[in-house]
Amino acid sequence: MSGRAGRRGLDDRGIVIMMIDEKMEPQIAKGMVKGVADRLDSAFHLGYNMILNLMRVEGISPKFMLERSFYQFQNTVAVPALEKKIEELKEEAEDIQVDDSDNVKEYYDIRKQLDQYNEDYSKVISHPGNILPHLKGGRLIKIKIGAHDYGWGIVISFSKRKSRNQAQFSDHESYLVQVFVNTMYVDSPVNLIKPMNPNLVDGIRPAKKGEKARSEVIPITLDSIKSISSCRSILPNDINNKQARKTLNKALKEIIKRFPDD
Fold first, then answer.
1. CB-CB neighbours of 148 under 10 Å
2. pLDDT tens digits for 5-64?
3. How far apart are CA 18 and CA 20, in angstroms?
4. Cα–Cα distance for residue pair 155/248, rounded to 1 Å
5. Secondary structure (3-state) at 146
6. Within a 10 A sphere around the Cβ of 190, how many other Cβ atoms?
């Protein structure tokens, strides 16, 4: 199935209409129809010049503008849901009974300390000064983006990020790594992935147990690298070729199978 599409809209009956102007794969069309739309968050703020101008207008103050802004509306609308959530969590906390709380607390503190050590360990390993010489094409790295664990992936390439609008990146954010993973949830809106933007939209995630997965190349920053392997795979000449991706996917599965203990 192939067609031509560019954007979608609704007619007066609420039926989705797709405007056709370019070739598109079936999976991309499915993502456009069923995918998750980008969240629209207001970035409204009062600048210095705006405040000065408001002070010259009778009856309108900076507070008046803030209270009637879309930014304030978005935050106010969320208040009832947050208050309800707080009450539910308070009730859950009151119902919790912990036996042998002293030992549990000691275990919890030790566990948190170990997690912090592991996090510090990962930051040292993934620092540009330490990891860049090893990020050759084909290198296997273990990836975790926030709460999303993609497991082992294959490095395709890496590049230094160019700052825009004088944006300052941390050491770990100053490089982008293109990584081939085979654990992407099959219905993730992968058409929304931008090669130079590591901020993946909601809906793009690894497959859960029992769900079908697919192969995809995703951009990550160095702080998403949790482990690096001594194993390297041979990369195909064209990673965008379907057959080449199948071969690379097979190689990744075979390496993981041969080294089950990481």
1. 15
2. 445 555 555 555 665 556 667 777 777 677 666 667 777 777 888 888 877 877 777 777
3. 6
4. 11
5. coil
6. 21
